[in-house]
Amino acid sequence: MKLFQPAPIKLEVTVKDPWWVDWFKRVSSRLGSGQAPQGIIPGASPYVLQNATDWDQDIIVAGGTVSAIEYSQDNITYYNLGVVAGMFRLSPLDYIRITYTGAPTVTVVTR
């Protein structure tokens, strides 16, 4: 008597983050990063700052002699924000470019 033996099955699985990974990121972003605001010294003008974290960041630009503040998602196309000071929200991987002749005070608040 011969037993039935199925042919081997080849499975290819694409692993994606489980549903709860996105949920956790959304919930934890509301709790805050726990980091204190950080003052940074801008480099040469135009100064480009990227949010390289997994958190939203507020960038506070004050003082100095600023001629333009611009926003970008790709570091290629920039959009002039029409102001020379203020607080600007950057999502992860977004950029802000600050053009100045007198260095402003720049503070990063990670949310």
State the end-to-end CA separation: 70 Å
Main sheet: strand order: 1-8-3-6
Indicate the CATH topology.
Answer: Jelly Rolls
Mean pLDDT: 86
Tell me the name of the CATH class.
Mainly Beta
| Helical content class | 10-25%
Tally the helices.
1
What is the approximate shape? elongated
Characterize the largest beta sheet: strand count, sense, and whether it forms a barrel: 4 strands, antiparallel
Q: What proportion of the residues form beta strands (DSSP E)?
A: 35-45%
- The SS-based structural class is mainly beta
- Low-confidence runs: none
The CATH architecture comes to Sandwich
The helix/strand series, from N terminus to C terminus, equals HEEEEEEEE
Task: Tell me the total number of β-strands.
Answer: 8
Q: Radius of gyration in whole Å, from Cα?
A: 23 Å
Number of domains: 1
